[in-house]
Amino acid sequence: MQWKKWKLLIGLLLGLSLVVSLARPARPIGNGLNLLVTLRPQGQVKMKRSTWQDYQPAFIGAPLAAKDHLLLGSNTFAKVLCQNLMPWEPEGGRDYIVSEGCPPTSKPKLSQSDKDTVIERAANNPDIPYILRPRDSSVLNQQPLLGWHQVEGASTYQVRVIGPGVKWTQETSATEIVYSGKQSLQPGARYWLIVKTDQGKSSKQEGSFGFTILDQEKAQEVSAAAEQIKQKQLSKPAEALALAHLYRSNDLNAEAIDLLETALADGPESIRVHQLLGDIYQHVGLNRLAREGYRQALELAKAAGDLDTQAQVLGGLAVTSGIIGQKDEAIAWLEKGKEVYQTLGDQVRAGQLEQQIQELGIAP
User: Fold this and answer.
1) Eight-class DSSP state of 119
2) Which of 79, 182, 216, 224 is most buried, with most CB under 10 Å away?
3) What does the pLDDT read at residue 11?
């Protein structure tokens, strides 16, 4: 299948399932995100997106749009962290439109991912030292940790960082190294990371990936917002998700990835932590790692009966599978995604997906 057709399909999937784009960070985002951070009892708080036919059980970490609905029974409790980081605790016994408790704001601190970006077709060839971190990300640390894919048979790697006033080269046998150049990396400046093996394989064979040191004023804003979230006394998974969404909203993809991976290593497994990790990996073009996150999220979502997450990660699996060349697998994920939308009663999206599959000529 031609890449042009896959771009059309990706656009459809991103619009349908809120899966993030496979792209380099782009312009600022004005689309606020509200996060369901507490609910009890499990399975009794329900939600309904604007295109769904009926309500479904809600789960911690679900992102909520302004037009979505929350339904609370008389003996249920829920807390939503609004896009401005203010908490909303709707009273039990009624149905709410999310905008009632979390009105949209022009400058949200938590934002949806920008879907209208340049598609990054990164297959992550295991034979080259493709960049892992920081990859198309802003960073807070002026001495960031640099990482790349380990190439079988490679003994050493030449690491270069190039940017305004900086031409730093270091050789190492490891697959990550802290920038230690004499020239300081400047806030607001863009730098490029290039890695080459002793066998001549270069990260540039996949493309050029860089990072930006977040400017001081923005870094202070993020730090203050992070402290505000930590003071909410949320559960560990909910706090990790809120902080990761904050970092992601400010293009701090490397920090968000580190935080989510730590949350999975130190705490209980979380459906939405796996999904968000997959989303961010996909956003920066690490499609093989994204698939791992999505597969874990899908397994947990199936066990929990979380159809909303299933629909989203099936779209992500279809896109990432297609990009790395697993076309038959991608088709299978598309068909399963359509089935989930049908189960949700989302006939509009299921129908759009079926029509697009037929137009692309990939129906089984």
Assistant:
1) B
2) 79
3) 54
90 neighbors 80 (Cβ within 8 angstroms): yes
Question: Both ends of the chain: CA-CA distance in Å?
Answer: 14
Apex CA 281: angle with CA 251 and CA 85, to 5°?
A: 45
Q: How far is residue 74's CA from residue 233's CA, in Å, rounded to a whole number?
A: 24
How far is 191 from 179, CA to CA, in rounded Å?
A: 12
* Entry pTM: 0.89
Rounded to the nearest 10 degrees, the angle between the axes of helix 271-283 and helix 307-323 is 30
Cα–Cα dist 301/340, whole Å: 12
Mean pLDDT of the chain: 88
For a pLDDT cut of 90, what percent of the chain falls above it?
75
Angle subtended at Cα 345 by Cα 340 and Cα 348, rounded to the nearest 5 degrees? 95
Tell whether the model's pLDDT for residue 194 goes beyond 70.
yes
Residue corresponding to tokens 């599959």? 357
Which amino acid appears at position 319 of this protein?
V
- SS3 of 213, please? strand
Q: Quick check: 106 and 29 in contact, CB under 8 A? A: no
For the chain, what is the radius of gyration of the CA atoms?
A: 21
Alpha carbons 245 and 222: distance in angstroms, whole number: 11
